[in-house]
Amino acid sequence: MLGYVSLLLLLNLSVTGGSKRCPYHCLCYESSDLVDCHSKGFTQVPHGLPHGTWLLDLGGNNLGALQRSTFAGLWSLRILVLSSSGIQLLQPQALSSLSFLEKLDLSHNELRRLPPDFSHSLSSLRELRLDNNYLEHLDLPSLERLESLEKLDLSHNRIETVELGAFRGLSRLRHLYLQGNQLAAVREGMLTMLLGLEVLLLGHNNISTIETEALMSLHSLSLLSLEGNQLKHLKFKTFLNLHTPGTHLLLSGNPWDCDCDLHRVFSKLLSVRHLHVDDYRNVTCYEPAQLAGASLAWVDSQLCVAETATVLVITLTVLVTVVAAIFMAERNRKKNQGKVGTRSESELDLQEK
Ligand SMILES: *[C@@H]1O[C@H](CO)[C@@H](O)[C@H](O)[C@H]1NC(C)=O
Ligand SMILES: *[C@@H]1O[C@H](CO)[C@@H](O)[C@H](O)[C@H]1NC(C)=O
């Protein structure tokens, strides 16, 4: 919005004074077909948009619902800004005829769901912003035709569930932002096919489970953020399944249960060359109560002390038992030998008599 406007000003383009068709209230910039209808109080998409429009900024209006074929005929449109425009609903085919669109900004609206045909004509789209809406679920068909998409921002919605396979059509995706939602688990199958994914932001969700195979297909992942979730434990194998040249992890702000197991998982994570826990100093314990708030980095060498002590006690007990058993056996043997001796003495006595 502002970015686009200042870009226009920087380019110092001249405004057409009606020599070309331009919707009332909007500003149209000659030669490049940039149409600025930002914050003009529109309650529907204005009529009379120039057919050659390349960039259309309709942000900051109050559009409510986008009707079917709203942008019909705008074949040249490459960038469409619809942010902060009070959009609650996309009617079926609302975005049809945008087959050449490369950037779509629908952030800061009131969308609760995406229509099943949302992606049908968006096969050229490279960047999609849907952050700061009210989306709750991602269904399988909604995103499936976004085959050129490189960047998808779904942050700060209310997403609780992602249908398995919802991202499977996104074979070019490099950045996926899902932070600030309500996801409870990262499930196996949720991220398959995202072979080129480089950045996956999952911070500030409600994630308590990451299934062991969930990250397996992410061969290019360089940043995985999981800070501010509900993780208490991790399995080392989950991260060992990340076959990447190098991945940075963010893991602080979780209610870690600091026990010997967790210590072992983190020391393995820290020793694997291609994994980097960038915020390890900020990883703090939540349980047990006596360690609450303590940095894992400070306490981790003591976490296995109790366990070592237990092992020592068991070893000692076994040792003492064994020694005692040997001692007893030896004593019994000697006693029996003594008995044999006594008996033979009395036998001798008898014989003498
Ligand atoms: C977070 O997940 C737990 C289950 O793991 C659930 O009981 C809780 O309601 C969830 N919280 C939110 C805010 O979604
Ligand atoms: C650690 O926490 C402090 C204070 O909350 C913050 O300023 C710092 O950026 C954090 N460091 C990392 C690496 O996250």
Automatic annotation (TrEMBL):
Domain of life: Eukaryota
GO CC, alphabetical: plasma membrane
Keywords, comma-separated and alphabetical: Leucine-rich repeat, Membrane, Repeat, Signal, Transmembrane, Transmembrane helix
Membrane-crossing residue ranges in chain numbering: 309-329
Range of residues in the leader sequence: 1-18
Protein name listed in UniProt: LRRNT domain-containing protein
Phylogenetic placement of the source organism: Eukaryota, Metazoa, Chordata, Craniata, Vertebrata
